[in-house]
Amino acid sequence: MDVFEVVAEPHRRAILAMLADQARQAGEIVAAFPTLTQPAVSRHLRVLREAGLVEARAAAQQRIYALKPDRLAEL
């Protein structure tokens, strides 16, 4: 998967910008995009994860997403 194609999508860029400050819960990310459905945001997060730009960790019942700075450095 070409990382430039992944980052070209505006919602994915916005998610990356959100995560630049700090790691966030999936629910926070979904809430930040009221025009998108939860499944749509989840698909964007999955694409970012598969491209290696973000990582997800489980914290009880929640997923916490954070940037992977080493992969972003390649951009």
Keywords, please?
three-stranded antiparallel sheet, about 80 residues, globular
Task: Describe the protein in words.
- With 75 residues, the chain is an alpha+beta fold.
- The chain contains five helices and three strands; from the N terminus they run ααβααββα.
- It has helices at 3-8, 10-21, 26-31, 38-50, 69-73, and strands spanning 24-25, 54-59, 62-67.
- A hairpin with a 2-residue loop joins strand 2 and strand 3 (62-67).
Summarize, please.
The protein is α+β, with helices and mostly antiparallel strands. The chain is built from five helices and three strands.
- Note the total helix count: 5
The geometry reads as globular
Count all strands and give the number.
Answer: 3
Helix content: 55-70%
Strand order of the largest sheet: 1-3-2
